[in-house]
Amino acid sequence: MEIVEYTSDMQVPVTQFYNRLTADVPHCYPVSEEEFAIAIRGVTTGKADEKEGGIDSETAFVALTEGAVQAFIHVGIGQEERVEDVGVIRFFGYERGARRIGQAVLEKAEAYLKTYDISKIFAFSQDCRYRFYHFEHAYLSDALDQVQGLLGFNGYHRSAGEVFLDWEDYSVTPVPSSLPVTLSIDWKDGRGQLPNCTAYAHQNGEQVGICESLCGGEFSSHTDAQDWLHTVWLGIEDEFQGQGLGRYLLQYALQEMHKVGYRHAAISTAWDNHRAFLFYSNCGYRTVDWTYEFVKNLSEPSTEKW
Length: 306
Hints:
Elements: E1 2-5, H1 11-21, H2 33-39, H3 41-45, E2 56-65, E3 68-80, E4 84-94, H4 99-114, E5 120-123, E6 140-141, H5 145-153, E7 157-167, E8 182-188, E9 196-203, E10 206-215, E11 228-236, H6 245-259, E12 264-270, H7 274-281, E13 286-297
C-alpha cells in the first residue's frame, strides 16, 4: 500500500472509487469524471471555488494497493464563524474492511492540516460538501458507517446532524387550514430538468408562511435525481402555528410540483428538531438517513487503542 497526493491523472479511478463507495448512500447518484473534476479542482489548480464548496490550501491523498484505490481524503483550511482557521475534511472514504488503510490516510491528512497551526478539524461540514454528495444540508451518512466509526475512534465527535425522510411515489390532497389564507406558487429554473418551487401563504396581504423546494437535479445531473424534489425550508410565522397551516402549505406545494412532473419527495431537518421530525414522519415521509458533522479538538488527545 502506498499513499500519494492526488493528481489529475487519477481522476477516473478516484471517481469510480467515489461512485462505488457512495452507491448505498441515499440521494447519491453516479457522478461523471467531469463533475468530480470540478469538485476537486481546488486541489489541482490551487484556486478554491466557494460556489462548489471550495476551501483554501486544498489537497487530497489517495491510498493505492497494487494500483487500485482503497481510500481517498480531500482536505483544506476553512474558517469557523469567519474568525478562526480550522481544518476541513470535505470528503473521506475507504473500502469497507480496509480499516488500517483508512487509518493511514486519515493520519496523513491530519498531519498536513496540523502544519497550519489549527485547533480543530471539521469533517463533512454542510458548507464544504461536494454538490453531488447527497441533497442539501447533508453531512456524513449513516450508510458510510465505517467512516463514522473510524472518525470516532480517532477522537472526532458529532457536532451537528440532519435527518432525511423520503416519500416515494407520493400522492397528496391538501387539507385546508382553518385560517383564511391565500396560497401561491413561484417557479424558478435551476440546474434540474424540472423547476424549483417556492410556495407562499398570505393573509391580508402579509406573508405568513413559506415552503421552498428544490429539484434533485440541483445536486446531481443523473436522470434518477430529476424526479425528486427536496423541501429545504418550511416556515410559518409564530402566531399562525398550530392551526394546520404548515401541513396545508406543504401539501399544496407537493400537489403543484406533482402536476409538473415530480414523483418523489424528500425533506430533512436538524437532528434535534423533534417537532419537525414528528410532523414530517406523520405526514407521509419515512426516515432514510441520519447524517452527522464531526469535529476533532486537537487539544484533546485520543484515548482509543488498536
